[in-house]
Design a protein that fits this description.
single chain, 310 residues, Double-stranded beta-helix, eight-stranded mixed beta sheet, 16 strands, taurine dioxygenase activity
């Protein structure tokens, strides 16, 4: 495999005029059309962003969820896309049990495991290359990418190590009308190699390629629960758009990739020990900020299996 073959389109292509971001006021619609905001009755909720991100108070993730609490948390997840919980001194088993309220758990043989195959443990300093400093949606190289993830910070650096999330439905809303029309029926190829080639063992990549062949997904997916149209390409795993020549595909992908860079569609979370983030992987991209060297940051993540994008 050549480096050029697996260099993300964001880096291959020439700059998009204007940087790919349209100036002027933003469309900041948090909820689907026709849906009105309603209060939450079983916990406190404090918004951290205009369209994405809310901190939840009054929920102990170490205890089993009742049916009504699970339903209200799910509504909050759909409406705010990423939920944050502070001071959750839970075990990996309790973390897995919480995530299972949303479905079967996923394993990822490409990443280091924690106490079980269903827990991914990230333990690194900021000098170690990994999925940091790049916007991405998890495991879009799978036919059925993850529904969501539950991430707990076990060790937090004194300064830095924040994570950012972007609402990709709001990003889609802010594309120029002609671009939205152009991409509505397009499909793109996703491959695990570009995302892992920077830090994974080449022998591991070669061994896993038959298990994870490239897959196609719609450039714009419809969220299966909210019905919102959401940009579903990312620079870590999306290699090209089907049916376009290389130059045209690269230019269009570059424009689409930078839509996650709009501050108005983002939330940034500063971690504390035992804080937990639960995000909707179908609706968001995220970016782990690698700015904490020489300190160490340790996190454990559980991912929930998803469905095929349409």
């Amino acid at each position: 495999m050549s480096v050029e073959q697996f260099t993300p389109a964001l880096l291959r292509s020439a700059p998009v005029p204007g940087g790919g971001i349209v100036e002027g006021p933003r469309v900041l619609r948090r909820l689907p059309e026709g849906v009105r905001p309603r209060p939450y009755e079983l916990f406190g909720l404090r918004p951290l962003g205009r369209v994405i991100g809310a901190e939840i108070d009054g929920v102990d993730l170490g205890r089993p969820l009742t049916g009504p609490l699970r339903a209200e948390l799910n509504r909050a997840l759909l409406e705010w896309k990423v939920l944050f919980f502070r001071d959750q001194d839970i075990t990996p088993a309790q973390q897995r049990a919480f995530a299972r309220n949303w479905g079967e758990l996923e394993t990822n043989p490409l990443l280091p495991a924690g106490d079980s195959a269903e827990v991914t443990r990230f333990s690194r300093s900021a000098t170690m290359p990994a999925f940091e400093n790049i916007w991405h949606t998890d495991v879009t190289f799978r036919p059925n990418p993850a529904l969501g993830s539950v991430l707990r910070l076990v060790r937090v650096p004194p300064v830095g190590g924040d994570t950012m999330w972007a609402d990709m439905a709001a990003a889609h809303d802010n594309l120029p009308a002609d671009v939205r029309e152009r991409i509505t029926e397009l499909r793109a190829v996703h491959d695990f190699v570009p995302g892992f080639v920077r830090f994974a063992d080449p022998e591991l990549l070669a061994r896993r390629q038959p298990e994870f062949p490239p897959v196609e997904h719609p450039v714009v997916r419809t969220h299966p629960e909210t019905g919102r149209r959401t940009l579903f390409v990312n620079p870590a795993f999306t290699t090209h758009i089907v049916g376009l020549d290389r130059a045209e595909s690269d230019e269009l992908l570059r424009l689409l990739f930078v839509q996650a860079h709009l501050p108005e569609v983002q939330v940034r979370f500063t971690w504390t020990e035992n804080a937990v983030a639960f995000w909707d992987n179908r609706a968001t991209q995220h970016y782990a900020v690698n700015d904490y060297a020489p300190e160490v940051r340790i996190a454990e993540r559980v991912a929930i299996a998803g469905d095929r994008p349409f």
